[in-house]
Design brief:
With 228 residues, the protein is α/β, with parallel strands linked by helices. The protein has a single domain, classed as Ribonuclease E inhibitor RraA/RraA-like (Glucose Oxidase, domain 1), CATH 3.50.30.40. It is built from seven helices and 13 strands. Strands 1, 2, 3, 4, 6, 8, 9, 12 and 13 form a nine-stranded mixed beta sheet that branches. Strands 5-7 form a two-stranded parallel sheet. It has a two-stranded antiparallel sheet with strand order 10-11. Helix 2 packs across helix 6 and helix 4 packs parallel to helix 5. The longest helix is centred in the C-terminal third of the chain and has 23 residues.
Length: 228
């Protein structure tokens, strides 16, 4: 690189989804949302809540990318985020220092943010739990980061193998985190109702003694299964 990059690049403006559509996904089960998006959308399984008892959230994504061992971008995202937003911080899955600790988690809670999700690490787990902010990360380590950049805010990132743009809707629970792209939000909300209805029917069948789904039973009896 010929020149050093800026410490931080911030793109503050992005299209926000209809708040009613975001509200429609609050409390949604992440597995139901995935089914409503053809079986995809969940972040890598390693990204889990610091507090499984406080893991349910839904909100609008504000993206940022923090360089490994750095968290300046996180503060830039906090500057432009609105109450109810979810900061989605890509950290290149860095594993030697934490991206965030309990004090920053407390500041995010004070600002009314819905959650923080990162593919990096956190520290001060006890304090994070006490702060009450749903925080998803790839693990815990005491080592602290710097604030030297470079980083970006508001630009597309990839976290846990899933592309995320500011304005997407993010939903989390004890199982993990799902990204609902804003472009398919309407269709996902509609399909979620259908998935919930189908799940309720299947659960009733299991409680009634069902031992096999009809679709699986049909496949097992079909010529597509070779029996020796």
């Amino acid at each position: 690189m010929l020149d050093d990059p800026p410490l931080l690049t911030i793109k503050a403006g992005f299209q926000r989804p209809d708040p009613a559509k975001v509200a429609a996904l609050k409390g949604a089960q992440t597995s139901h949302l995935v089914d409503a998006m053809d079986g995809r959308g969940a972040l890598d399984w390693t990204i889990k809540p610091c507090d499984p008892e406080n893991a349910s959230f839904a909100g609008v994504a504000v993206t940022c990318h923090a360089y490994p061992a750095d968290n300046l971008a996180l503060f830039g995202a906090m500057e432009i985020a609105q109450p109810g937003d979810v900061i989605m911080c890509a950290n290149d899955s860095y594993r030697l220092t934490a991206l965030v600790g309990d004090l920053v988690a407390g500041m995010m809670k004070n600002a009314g943010l819905a959650a923080l999700v990162t593919d990096g690490l956190a520290r001060d787990r006890v304090g994070i739990v006490a702060a009450g902010l749903p925080l998803f990360c790839a693990g815990i380590v005491p080592n602290s980061p710097a604030k030297n950049g470079p980083g970006s805010v508001g630009l597309p990132v990839t976290i846990g193998g899933v592309p995320v743009s500011s304005g997407d809707v993010i939903v989390g629970d004890g199982d993990g985190v799902v990204v609902v792209p804003q472009a398919i939000l309407d269709a996902t909300v509609k399909r979620l109702g259908e998935v919930r209805a189908a799940e309720a029917k299947a659960e009733a069948a299991v409680k009634g003694g069902a031992k096999m789904t009809a679709s699986a039973a049909a496949l097992l009896k079909s010529p597509r299964v070779l029996r020796l």
